[in-house]
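Progress report, Aim 2. The chain analyzed during this reporting quarter is listed below.
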Amino acid sequence: MRTLIVTPKGMNKLREQAEDLRRQIKELQGQTAEIMEVGGNQWHDNFAFEQQGVDLCRLNAKLQEVQEIISKATVASPPSAPVFKVEIGTRVRFYVGEETNPRDVIVAGYGESDPNNNFYAYDTPLASQLMKQKPGDEFLAQIGQTEENIYILSVQFAPEVF
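Predicted structure tokens for the chain:
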């Protein structure tokens, strides 16, 4: 797995997610005796016991995935002011093609996308094409199924990322 870049908020969210998964696993494991008793103290032909095993495997796999992300992650620092290029923690204003209204995107860390609030992780298709661009840059980018001309209007620090 490649090195992943997260913000401090993103790392805290990952750690909280791992702790929540550990809690769910412990809670599920604590139900084993009750599940066995309800099922006639048998593991075979006991749907609840089988389902618990499936649920534990799923939770353990998810916990392992989150722990691997945490172990591979580097925590980003806020960009130095003034900001001259698109990087994690910046707000980018740009035109796409012939559009007359500019778009705003906030570049966030790995797994921190929230399109409803214009947050896009640096490795998403759109944000990855914006990375390292500067105000005044114009370039062709793949947007959906079409290639569009992008013109960068401004780049500024986005404190809400950190």
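The CA atoms of residues 66 and 108 lie 18 Å apart. The chain has two domains: 4-75, 90-161. These observations will guide the mutagenesis work planned for the next reporting period.
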